[in-house]
Design a protein that fits this description.
The complex is a heterodimer. By secondary structure, chain A is mainly alpha-helical. Chain A is built from five helices and no strands. The termini of chain A are far apart. Chain B is globular, with a radius of gyration of 15 Å. Classes of the chains: A mainly alpha, B mainly alpha. Chain B: Keywords: Membrane, Transmembrane, Transmembrane helix.
Chain lengths: ~150, ~140
């Protein structure tokens, strides 16, 4: 189970690095508004997917990983948001933190559905972990394609 | 009472369709800042309403409801944002996606008649405020 989650995590990191490289090359073309929207979109989806997979890998240490996830989300937001100026930096910090908290929540619910008062025996645990990993990968691909397509419009 | 909650989804979609027709007629008069707010509010509120009501009706199908709520929020946000610009389309897309992936968990944690009625009141009020603000600004 761990190898599948690790493969999905590495694929997500490669997609995020490829998108960041394309955006970094054309950062002098950004207007003020387009930088804001890039920082919101990229910070939300990248930190959501990466912290979700990290929670699956280290789910035994809940306190440490939920603190580290927030720091990783804010670091991703700062990295994407610092492409243009300080206004997009603030938007990147906010959206990265929001995505990180939401990814941690999705991971905790899918490992133990009784904390949301769902019935416990509806799915087994591997099915939920596989579903959220692959669905997050699909959403990440779709968002990256839409975001890179906006450089051509 | 709880078997009538499915009517609320139908009511939400009808309100969204009427608001879409209203904005389609005056989309040339609305600037991009108001357009961004319109896309975010419409996609997020429709996604939250669909997820919360469907998880109350069918509490045993968690995965399917997550897919349906996420796709609904994504499509409605993209439609409302696509009226104006490509960048408003991106804003509506990402907000509908985040709200839709979160909404079945909210609905499973906080269920009950009072919560759903309050949510419906807030959503219809938000759509009314959108129409009012577009009427004031142009």
């Amino acid at each position: 189970m761990n190898t599948i989650v690790l493969t999905i995590l590495i694929t997500n990191c490669l997609i995020a690095l490829f998108g960041y490289r394309v955006l970094f090359r054309s950062r002098y073309l950004f207007s003020d508004r387009f930088g804001f929207i890039v920082s919101i979109t990229g910070g939300n989806i990248v930190s959501l997917v990466i912290t979700n997979n990290l929670f699956y890998l280290f789910s035994n240490h809940f306190n440490v990983i939920s603190f580290m996830n927030l720091l990783i989300g804010v670091a991703i937001g700062v990295t994407i948001g610092s492409l243009l100026n300080s206004q997009t930096l603030i938007a990147g910090i906010y959206s990265g933190g929001t995505g990180a908290v939401m990814g941690t929540m999705i991971g905790a619910v899918s490992l133990d559905p009784t904390i949301c008062s769902l019935p416990a025996q509806i799915y087994n645990q591997q099915e939920l972990v596989l579903f959220f990993g692959l669905f997050g990968l699909f959403l990440h691909l779709l968002t990256t394609l839409l975001l890179l397509f906006s450089l051509k419009v | 009472m709880s078997e009538w909650f499915g009517v609320f989804i139908y009511m939400n979609l009808v309100v969204a369709l009427l608001t879409y027709i209203y904005f389609y007629k005056r989309r040339k008069l609305i600037g991009f800042h108001l357009g961004m707010n319109i896309a975010m509010v419409a996609g997020g509120s429709i996604a939250i309403g669909t997820g919360v009501i469907l998880i109350n009706q069918f509490p045993l199908h968690f995965l399917e409801i997550t897919i349906i709520a996420t796709l609904t929020g994504l499509i409605i946000g993209s439609l409302f944002g696509g009226l104006f610009d490509y960048q408003t389309l991106l804003t509506g897309f990402i907000n509908g996606l985040m709200m839709g992936i979160m909404s079945p968990m909210i609905g499973a944690a906080a269920s009950g008649t009072t919560f759903i009625l309050f949510l419906e009141f807030c959503m219809i009020g938000a759509f009314g405020l959108l129409i009012l603000s577009s009427k004031n600004s142009s």
